[in-house]
Structure formats: C-alpha cells, structure tokens
Amino acid sequence: MDKVSQAVENMRGPLSCSQSVLCAFCDDAKLTFDEAKEIGAPYSGGRKIKCGAVCAAEIVLSAVDGNDSRHAEFEDKFRENVGAINCREIRSKNLTPCIGCVETSAKILDEMIH
Predict the structure, then answer these.
(1) Which of 18, 34, 76, 114 meets the CB 3.0–4.6 Å disulfide criterion with 56?
(2) Is the dihedral of CA 55, 61, 65, 68 positive or negative?
C-alpha cells in the first residue's frame, strides 16, 4: 500500500489526522509506528492552530531535511489545494473534511520527499 493510501486508511481507523500522516511516513521520519503515534497525538483537532495533517507533514519534512526550510512551500501547496491551513478555518468554512486534509497532506508530502 502506498503512503497516501496508508494515511487515508489510518484516518478511517483509530488514528487522528496528525497521527494518520505521521504514522504513514514514520520510516521517512526515522520513527517507529508507536513513536509516530505518540508524537502526532498533540497536533490533532487543530490544537496547534494549524491543521494536524499539516503539522505532521512538517514534522516529517524536518526529519528528512534536518531543518524547516520547506515548511512554507508545503503550506503554500496545501493552501492551494484546501483553501487554508488553519484547522478552525477549514472546518468553519467546510473547505474539506478531515480525511481530505489527510489525503492532501500525504500527497503533497509524498511528492516533496520521494
């Protein structure tokens, strides 16, 4: 199963948005599945203002790059596809459901790192 499909499948199961993306890309972030699940937990539901799927992708990008140099590029691409990066804005304007944010985040992340 490819990583985008895995992220979507994770979201259909017991994982949150941030956990779904981070767990699908845990090998890229050099984390175990359980580590990714634990690290991703605090970012779900807009608790960090940004969409949790965005936060998770940025964690992976930082691990791959060793810095946050591509976060702005990722956010621009996500915003182009979804309309916002702020969880509350995405939800209040009904821009896309959470599973759509997970899929979009995973697609962009996959393109950027593979």
Answers:
(1) 18
(2) negative
Residue whose C-alpha is closest to residue 50's, from 74, 23, 24:
74
φ, ψ of residue 46 in degrees (nearest 5)? 75, 20
Query: Dihedral of CA 113/1/86/32: which sign?
Result: negative
In angstroms, the CA 81 to CA 47 distance is 22
Q: Write down the pTM of the prediction.
A: 0.96
Contact between 15 and 99 under an 8 Å Cβ cutoff? The reply is: no
pLDDT tens-place string over residues 84-112: 999 999 999 999 999 999 999 999 999 99
The neighbouring-strand residues paired with 48 are: 50
How far is 62 from 18, CA to CA, in rounded Å?
15
